[in-house]
Amino acid sequence: MEWLLVMVLVLEFVCVLVGVAFFTLLERKILGYVQVRKGPNKVGFLGLMQPFADAIKLFTKGLVYVSVGNYNIFYVSPGLMLGLMLCIWSVMPWVGGAFDFSWGVLYFLCVSSLGVYCLFGCGWASNSKYGLLGAMRGVAQTISYEVSLAMILIGVGLMGFSYDFSMYGLMQNYIWFCLVAGPLVVCWVASIFAESNRSPFDFAEGESELVSGFNVEYSGALFAFLFMAEYGMMMMMSLMSVVMFFGGLNYFYLGLLMIILYIWVRGSFPRYRYDKLMYLVWKSFLPLVMHWLVLLGGMLVLVVWVL
């Protein structure tokens, strides 16, 4: 059974990395049409080989060696960030999947919170002021929005009577959670944008302000690791949205709409102001989610008392 488990995990990780490659192609195509131009269309038929050309370019490119900085953390952090992204994918409740997490929500929160250390390690160890500023922004942003994410997950756990993601699909056979908890869906979508450091909340990588932010000193394979970790997390969050609010993985194709939403928002909205970003989570999302939890908890107590 151990070798079968390993094979399932390896197959899942390979599919995730291939999906990341074509996610980048989809993003460049859609952004091209948003900006009234063609996306990649020269490498292969309709540009389908462009992700593989980019991968070959990145993994054969030379690395930048930092002469003044923390050498070990600088080189370990990108690989660790990619590894954490793949570990989070193991909680996805596939039919016949490798794992069945009865406390999957807690596992998801624990592993995703470790990404903060990798992000800060990348910026701090590079000994670059731009990298350090981007890392500090990213850490403050990620920690702030993890609070709202945790509260939303608790709310979904109350509706699903479980912290097991595989149970949410069964509970939504009668009604989708998005129809019961609309405000939670809005807060969740904005929070995963901020948690993934994506536009309009891409302050850790503010190119117009910080020259690529925390990853400014990375190149070649190390930059590819950071790139794959970011896009893999976006795919994970998109499918997690379907699991939590839109009927479970029986409707996994809705995850593609969430991925397109990521790209559409990037091509349509300017970067948010940093102080407003913090006000949004602490003064808007957190009170709204906590009030909703009180209302939902009261309704559940009432239902249990009546029954």
TrEMBL record:
It catalyses: a ubiquinone + NADH + 5 H(+)(in) = a ubiquinol + NAD(+) + 4 H(+)(out). GO terms for molecular function: NADH dehydrogenase (ubiquinone) activity; NADH dehydrogenase activity. Keywords: Membrane, Mitochondrion, NAD, Oxidoreductase, Transmembrane, Transmembrane helix, Transport, Ubiquinone. Its EC number is 7.1.1.2. InterPro entries: NADH_UbQ_OxRdtase_su1/FPO, NADH_UbQ_OxRdtase_su1_CS. GO terms for cellular component: mitochondrial inner membrane. Core subunit of the mitochondrial membrane respiratory chain NADH dehydrogenase (Complex I) that is believed to belong to the minimal assembly required for catalysis. Complex I functions in the transfer of electrons from NADH to the respiratory chain. The immediate electron acceptor for the enzyme is believed to be ubiquinone. Belongs to the complex I subunit 1 family. This is NADH-ubiquinone oxidoreductase chain 1. The gene is nad1.
